[in-house]
Amino acid sequence: MSIMKLIRFVEGSGRRPADSGAETETVRKIVQALDRIEPDRARFMAAFAYLLGRVASADSKVSDDEVQAIERLIVERCRIEPAQAILVVQMAKTQNLLFGGTENFLVAREFGQIATREQSLGLLECLFAVAAADGSISVVEDNEIRRISNELRLTHEEFIQARSDYRDYLAVLRTRRPDPPPR
């Protein structure tokens, strides 16, 4: 199921995926808790998590630090339980891996339609926080954040302001350390 189908499913299509015999009781409880989330809030959460995952996977690798940062941000910004955040993040990572190229713009546009300007600016801060979680924001990650910022119709000044808070993490601004002297 693509992220856009998930977003539409949450809106109330009424269809549920077939039950799996391998599903654990813990997963069932988390899914039940997610089912009780108001549809608009669930749409916001799904798009928010997807976009964070989009930046984390921009450099073709998602570090454990980035995953933990996404989970923490989902808990803080979406006000859900950590166990629920883990499920949301895993779903977003999977969707990003499977459908990233085709869904990226659509999810950003959807987020832009349902989020306030303040929420979009908050997302921008979170995108930089995720990219910096492993100690460095690569050029690829920085470019992906720029793309998302443009897709959300944020101004260049807003992008630069958020980026300046993370300038020490920008790989493009770091000077290369000299090689150690030969022995």
Write a concise synopsis of the structure shown.
The chain is an all-alpha fold and 183 residues long. Helix content is 69%, strand content 0%.
Quaternary assembly: single chain
What is the structural class? mainly alpha
N-end to C-end Cα span: 56 Å
* Shape, principal axes of CA atoms: globular
CATH architecture assignment name:
Orthogonal Bundle
Instruction: Tell me the series of helices and strands, N- to C-terminal.
Output: HHHHHHHH
Give the strand content.
under 5%
Mean pLDDT over the residues: 83
Q: Please give the radius of gyration in angstroms.
A: 18 Å
The CATH homologous superfamily is named: TerB-like
Instruction: Pick out the low-confidence regions.
Output: 9-22
Main beta-sheet strand count, sense and barrel state = none
Number of helices: 8
Total of domains: 1
Helical percentage: 55-70%
Any overview of this molecule?
- It is a single chain.
- This protein has a single domain, classed as Orthogonal Bundle (TerB-like), CATH 1.10.3680.10.
- The chain contains eight helices and no strands.
- The chain is mainly α.
- It is globular, with a radius of gyration of 18 Å.
